[in-house]
Write a structure and sequence with these properties.
single chain; alpha+beta; Diaminopimelate Epimerase, Chain A, domain 1; 2 domains; 17-stranded mixed β-sheet; two-stranded antiparallel sheet; about 40% strand
Length: about 280
């Protein structure tokens, strides 16, 4: 059978979205990698599978798969895209998306942007998680000219390095070295952030299992939280990524709100022969 999909993106962070609410979709890791190939497949930063859920107060369940075939726990831009689809379907201005990291409440704003409640920022070393007890405000990690990042958990692990010039950082070289550092038992996402103003942060990202991406929603949340913890910004800031801006608010209750756009690009079908590797 052919497999239908929708191609979407949030600030250039791009996704293949598959609706599995009526028919079970069980892709192998090889098939995920095949679809993610940007020359021979469709290409994506993450593959999102929308599944049914029996959980009360939740509309759908979202699985998140990386281009390497592994499963991710959180994806802020992807959540925003799936929320946009579900709200367009239902005609409502709010929805709740369940993930392995927990349920995420989302709503559409008057300008068409979507806000997602990404939940509590995790600041304890056990919850991020880290391999041992350390000061999460200044990790004993250094690679090249970057050192002493802040660790934040957003349902997935992040480390944020504050640098003088984010655009000068060799993200492709440093990212994988830090991702696989022994302090991170589940590997980590890596952000390089530059403070431009008390409410504006320039950030570039290396995503665990995906590499350099145009934007990372959970990474933007982690970066804003890290900057506030360091006293570099207030509790609300715009995070300027390669693909555009996200507005992040870290509430007094510890919950992080992320606001940004979601875009549909095209719909298509995957050929069975392609999925079978023929």
């Amino acid at each position: 059978m052919t497999q239908n999909f929708i191609k979407m993106h949030g600030l250039g962070n791009d996704f293949v979205v598959i609706d599995a609410r009526r028919d079970v979709v069980d892709l192998t890791a090889d098939q995920v990698r095949r679809i993610g190939d940007r020359r021979r497949g469709v290409g994506f930063d993450q593959l999102l599978i929308i599944e049914p859920t029996a959980t009360k107060g939740v509309d759908v369940y979202m699985r998140i798969l990386n281009p390497d075939g592994g499963e991710a726990r959180a994806c802020g831009n992807g959540t925003r895209c799936v929320a946009d689809l579900v709200m367009s379907e239902t005609g409502r201005r709010e929805t709740v998306i369940d993930t392995v990291a927990g349920a995420i409440a989302c709503h559409r704003n008057a300008d068409g942007s979507v806000t997602c409640d990404m939940g509590q920022a995790r600041l304890d070393w056990r919850d991020i998680p880290l391999a041992r007890e350390v000061d999460t405000m200044s990790l004993p990690v250094s690679v090249g000219d970057v050192a002493k990042p802040v660790a934040v958990g957003m349902g997935n692990p992040h480390v944020v390095f504050f640098v003088d010039e984010a655009d000068a950082v060799d993200v492709e070289r440093l990212g994988p070295l830090i991702e696989n550092h022994t302090l991170f038992p589940d590997r980590t996402n890596v952000e390089f952030a530059q403070i431009l103003a008390p409410d504006l942060i320039r950030m570039r990202v290396w995503e665990r299992g995906a590499g350099v991406t145009q934007a990372c929603g959970s990474g933007a949340c982690a970066t804003a939280v890290a900057a506030c913890r360091r006293g570099l910004t207030g509790r609300a800031a715009t995070v300027r990524l390669d693909g555009g801006d996200l507005r992040i608010e870290w509430g007094d209750d510890g919950r992080v709100l992320m606001t940004g756009p979601a875009a549909r690009v095209f719909a298509g079908t995957l050929d069975p022969a392609f999925l079978d590797g023929r």
